[in-house]
Fold this protein.
Amino acid sequence: MTFKAPDSLSEQIAHYLAERIIRGELVPGERIQEQKVTQALNVSRGSVREALLILERRHLVAILPRRGAHVTRLDEHNVRSLCGLMSELYTLLGHAVAERWQADSDLQPFLAIQQRLQEAHARQDIKAFVAESFAVMRAAYPFAHNPYLQETVENLQPAMSRAYYLALDQRQASMQDYLELFAQLLDAVVKRDPARIREVLGTYCQRSCELVLAALAAG
């Protein structure tokens, strides 16, 4: 595999490695050897090092002195901490959309995502379903207009994707459950109901947390 866009090479490498971590091809605790990645992807070692720093910022790898980069481990404390924080961040985004949407066209991106989620569900395409699930928050960014919130969510999203993929892959979580949640969330946004938005997202994140922990226990 060869990448040919030097202006975004490290990001491309980081994305490639992140996908392998999210899908479980690189397992918790596994060392990511710079030289092997350099040879496999035909890229410079400096680009790989920069990519690993990106992944460290996104909580997918830990870089330790004299031990190199290792895939981070999922445990109960990490999962509960992540889900609790993401619940609050999602709620902030949900409130922003509810407060600021003006015309039906403002909601069209969310309806398009809902359609793609349904199509991924019909195909039982976990990878596409997870990707579209997180497309929802990106569609909400313009309403929040908060670069700090956006950066925080983006850096945490890969870790959440990893946990979510694990639960779906082990059949602990259901795509249909998420579709029902998203329908409830859209309804609350349309009605500009902040209490309902918080309730729906809080319940969902708590449920997701338990499903991920069940998947970890089963694994």
About this structure: DSSP finds nine helices and three strands in the chain. The chain has two domains: 6-71, 76-218. The mean pLDDT is 91.
